[in-house]
Amino acid sequence: MALAGCNAPAGKSHYILAERLFSDHKYAAAVEEFKKLVDGDPRGSLAQKALFRIGTLQYLYLEDYLDSIKSFRQFIALSPDTELVYQAASKRGVVAPDA
Fold it and tell me: How many whole angstroms separate alpha carbon 68 and alpha carbon 93?
């Protein structure tokens, strides 16, 4: 039985493309590409990095503060033991201190 979602090479391809889009200042497109990676394997280590990048892009570049909060919450829920959790929590607090 095949598993739904993206495999490791596909996930890495999404991540690389998203980073290229970010470098080209195509922030909304980068977010969408990162989301494809997360949708394919939400608990994978690359997806955790992608979630953090999504929240950061939404916050800093797209000024989409509500979705940024959602992305950081999802990141924190899926990545409680990573070093980026403190950064995500602090950014979430800057966007919405009572969130």
Answer: 11
Which has the closest alpha carbon to 9: 43, 41, 55? 41
Using DSSP's 3-state secondary structure scheme, residue 28 falls into helix
**Alpha helices, H only, the chain:** 8-23, 27-40, 45-56, 65-78, 85-95
Residue 2 lies inside a defined structural domain of this protein:
no
Give domain status of residue 4, yes or no: no
**Residue-wise pLDDT tens digits, 61-86:** 999 999 999 999 998 888 777 777 77
Range of the domain at 26: 9-95
